[in-house]
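To assess whether ligand presence alters the predicted conformation, the chain was also submitted together with zinc ion. Input:
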Amino acid sequence: MIPKETADYLRHAFKKGKVVCLTGAGISVESGIPAFRGKGGLWERYDPQVYANSQGLTATLKMRPQDLGKFIIDFYSVILKARPNPAHLALSEMEKKGILSGIITQNIDNLHGQAGNRNVVELHGNAFRIRCMSCKKLMTLEKDRLQEMIESLKGIRHSRIKLLKALSRYFPRCNCGSRYRIDVVLFGEMLPQKELALAYKHLDNCETLLIIGSSLVVYPVATLPLYAKEKGAKLIEINNEKSALSDLCDYRIRGKVSEVLPEILKTVDV
Ligand code: NAD
Ligand code: ZN
């Protein structure tokens, strides 16, 4: 499936050891999480301008608490069921072998972490983490806690007070007095500056950037391949379709991530 010329380049690149990945929603589709623009996804049923936007979420809580409860149940049910697929596992194996410098991801599903990768820059946050809105302290929400939250929300119908009471157990007050919220980047919000700086650091040191399962239309992440290219890195796209920046890539591998990544691992494994 990988063209010979691309395989030859990859063998050479991985030997040099300056390979970085940029992953998008496409890497998690075969884990059961539909892509942002994918069929059957959450965002076909819920308008992202409302449900991925902090003012939209606050307004929904006020006017239609039952819809907000349903959204939270749907959102976490999908994420909690997902498991790393062979693409995530291949990247984890590459990190263990010391041939992958790091992963920069737009995903919030924690599947790279679950697969065993440690060197992951999460540009859009992580749905299993909460953050104090004032002092920015972070806390992990374990899977069983989230499962428990889903069950408790299922019993609530139209009461905003009951919904708030249930949610406040999982998004509690911080010692500083402020409240915790989900640690993901919503529409219109800035990317975490520390993570962005780390992403640039990876790109400054990379000679090959694998762009895996991203349509490259979400900004500012879509500018990262341009930055890497300007710094002299080669861009390799792994996607079953054309992306917004396909023409800029030096090599393109068309196929399913769950097949392509294990094949790359086999090809470059020395
Ligand atoms: P996107 O949904 O815009 O694009 C996904 C890309 O992956 C497409 O180009 C598609 O052709 C490709 N693709 C889908 N399935 C594939 C497969 N099995 N093999 C190979 N390629 C495949 O994704 P994006 O560019 O990451 O932008 C989506 C935004 O929404 C991001 O900001 C992200 O934070 C968020 N999001 C995250 C998740 C997640 O955490 N898993 C899921 C949906 C959306
Ligand atoms: Zn605080």
